[in-house]
Amino acid sequence: MSGTRARAGDRTRLTDREGFLAWAFLLPTIVYLTALVVAPFGLTVAFAFSRSTSDAPSYRFGGLRGFRAVFGDDVFWRSLLDTLTLTCVSVVLVVVLGTVLAHVLRADLRFRRTVRTLVLLPWTTPVALSAISWRWLLGPAGSPVERVLRGASLLHGGGSPLGRTGPAAVAVVAAHVWRLTPLAAVIVAAGLNAVPSGVWDAARLDGAGFWRRLFGVTVPLTLPVTAVAAVFTAAITFVDMAVVRVLTGGGPHDSTQVLPTLAYLRGVEGGDIGAGAAASLFLLPLFLAGVVVALRAVRRAEAIR
Amino acid sequence: MTPVNGLAARTAAREMLRQRRLAAVRQVVVRVTVYAVAAVAALVCAAPFLWGLATAFERGTPGARHRPTTEHVRALFHSTRFPTFVVNTLVVGGLVVVVTLALALPAAYALSRLHRSWGGRAGLAILLVYLVPPPLLFLSLSRVVATLGLADSIWSLVLVHPTVTVPVSVWLLAAFLRGVPVDIEEQAMVDGHSRFGAFVRVVAPQVLPGIAAVVVLTFTLAAGEFTYALTFIWSDASMPVSTGLPARLGGGDPMLWRSVQSGAVFVAVPLAIACGLFLDRFVSVLAQGAHRD
């Protein structure tokens, strides 16, 4: 390297100095992210201890007022539980279905391109627009799902499935699983591609059957990448606001609110910036805990290998 | 050949034939299963849009048989501001792509090639920033946007969306850059280019396919973002598709619902096709990541 540089010219230009270039190349990104992520994050923490409202948005210290408002809010506790349940159920379903779909995406199919484009639809469509389509599929009288539910006597009386607590919650989970399964499939497919195909052939020659190959070879080898898929799914589901806002509007009777939509409801629509910020802060520790658990799982899987 | 040996050979041959037939049957079963799963997956993934498209051309109640009509699609363009929403999304998406590349490409190069002792920590810090989710930031960023005088303007989104797209793009571009051999860069410097010149003229063109993939991903992320668009923008003239169309559902006009459905399909299909073109590239980069770790 140093020999190369000596040959490149006798002058040491500024544009040749690696230390300078590294700083010049990274600094804009660091400044930008500090100004618009790190600093606003500090501001959110500050707002959580404020009595600021949208009518009087300037900062006034309010101590624990925001947190007290949040803890006294029944909807907060329900949305906290809902957010956790939604995330856990979605992750399990997405990882299982995504692994199946990954094998299909890799298979040598005749209509491969068509299948892949259709399978990508849920992931690439703006989530709010998918939620519109889901609402149309589930909600109005005469929609396919409504008719099937009525036909199976699972829905009685008037009103749409989205007007009932249970079905509305199932719809939110279904929309999330539908949306994130393709993403998980792409990630798992990448993990499968990285495994040399000889491994499977060797296992087959050694007489391992389908299940033995699945749990003895495929699952352990793709565990790290599966963990990555699970983390992505959890992270996206946990902080998503669009599905609930558009599909159920948090209803019926706030039964499908999640933490992000609650923060919006209290902080923007309710005008209580302090309470909204306090509610949104609860996204952070749970989120970090999930990341740590996942990273540890990855490391353990690699240690075994 | 003794009769006994002949018998053994015949048995062996029969056994081999049986095995081969079994393998063939097994292969057919596997193929059928794979095709069946693929068909079901494609159908389920497209189901909401297929239904939206089917009903967009219907008269009267959903599912009832009538002559198809284009009135709902026409209403989308005349009774809603769908064209405005689309233009806003395209402008915001395009500008976010430019800002993202301008920030992320040099940063990715610095992280992947200019080995500094703090390189690993800087990369980790950028990744951590990506983990801070929009719902934690929208309240304070809406104050920032208001202070800068950008409230209710598409410029607020151009300013804020790269917080989501830059970290992902840095990570992806660094992976692409690691795939470029160091030799060609050194050769360029031997030929008289500065390190910076080598980056611009030799290395960047090598990762053009990766840059194209990042452009598509960044645009898709910017077009799909919902939280910031919902918080910062409240007038029709500035709304992107992701909040403009859902807002039209609240009007209570059931006839407009069909128009909105068709609008969702018009946005969904081009994005899926564009991302489909780059799917293999994403998979290969992710595979590198999986392989290296």
Automatic annotation (TrEMBL), chain A:
Compartments, as annotated in UniProt: Cell membrane
GO cellular component: plasma membrane
Example of a GO biological process term: transmembrane transport
Residues annotated as transmembrane: 20-49, 84-105, 117-137, 183-202, 214-239, 273-295
InterPro entries: MetI-like (IPR000515), MetI-like_sf (IPR035906)
Family that this chain belongs to: Belongs to the binding-protein-dependent transport system permease family.
Protein name per UniProt: Sugar ABC transporter permease
Organism: Actinoallomurus iriomotensis
From TrEMBL, chain B:
Membrane-spanning segments: 28-51, 85-111, 123-142, 154-177, 255-279
Main location: membrane
Residue ranges occupied by any ABC transmembrane type-1 domain in the UniProt entry: 86-278
Pfam families: BPD_transp_1
SUPFAM superfamilies: MetI-like
GO BP, one annotated term: transmembrane transport
GO CC, one annotated term: plasma membrane
Membrane-protein topology: Multi-pass membrane protein
Keyword terms, alphabetized: Cell membrane, Membrane, Transmembrane, Transmembrane helix, Transport
Compartments, record wording: Cell membrane
Family classification: Belongs to the binding-protein-dependent transport system permease family.
Record-given protein name: ABC transmembrane type-1 domain-containing protein
Organism of origin: Actinoallomurus iriomotensis
